[in-house]
Design brief:
The protein is mainly alpha-helical and 120 residues long. The protein has four helices and no strands. Helix 1 runs antiparallel to helix 2 (47-64), helix 1 (4-34) packs antiparallel against helix 4 and helix 2 runs parallel beside helix 4 (89-119).
């Protein structure tokens, strides 16, 4: 039987690895999905990618803390901040595709990691 300290170290390492995958792998995933769509740059250049990374960090944290309902806060905050832009159909569709693909990536990653942690 593994010593408890080593098991906890493995669990922390697994979670940290999940955050790295969420940040970089999630950006790659969302870019692949959104790659076929062109949206004129509005706002700060690269801000959407940074927002997406922060969103996946929050969602992953909420999953690890079993606070699934709190994930709605992320979507609500983004929607409030982008309210005016959502009135334009092209932007709204682009926004929803990017947001949902980002959330799904973090959600599936978090659930898989939580399952793996139960096996350790």
């Amino acid at each position: 039987m593994m010593n408890i300290w080593l098991m906890n170290l493995i669990k922390v390492g697994t979670c940290l690895f999940a955050y790295i995958v969420s940040i970089w792998g999630g950006s790659w995933f969302v870019k692949k999905i959104l790659g076929k769509y062109n949206l004129p740059e509005e706002g700060l250049k690269g801000a959407g990618e940074i927002i997406g990374k922060l969103e996946r960090i929050l969602i992953l944290s909420f999953i690890f803390l079993d606070q699934y309902l709190a994930i709605t806060i992320v979507l609500t905050a983004k929607s409030i901040a982008r309210f005016e832009g959502l009135k334009k159909r092209n932007f709204a569709e682009y926004y929803l595709i990017g947001t949902f693909s980002s959330i799904l990536f973090a959600l599936f990653l978090g659930l898989i990691v939580k399952w793996i942690l139960t096996l350790i």
